[in-house]
Design brief:
two-stranded antiparallel ribbon, 2 helices, flat, 70 residues, alpha+beta, single chain
């Protein structure tokens, strides 16, 4: 997290956070896998990194299951 005084990054313990990000990578992978008919809609450079804007349809039930951690 960043310091409100200088903007420097400070490490904090996972237990002190009001949320759990431990399964975020898996959840995002499941959502990406659930995209039907993906299409590249555009390209953009963000903070020096080339990115792609991808569109498609996602089955909302699969997304809910992924977010709930099944």
């Amino acid at each position: 997290m960043t310091s409100i005084f200088g903007g420097d990054w400070n490490q904090v313990s996972a237990e002190s956070l009001p949320f759990n990000l431990s399964g975020l990578g898996l959840t995002m992978a499941e959502i990406v896998d659930a995209i039907q008919n993906p299409k590249v809609l555009g390209e953009e450079r963000l903070n020096g990194i080339d990115t792609l804007l991808i569109g498609g349809m996602v089955n909302s039930q699969k997304t809910l299951e992924a977010r709930a951690g099944r």
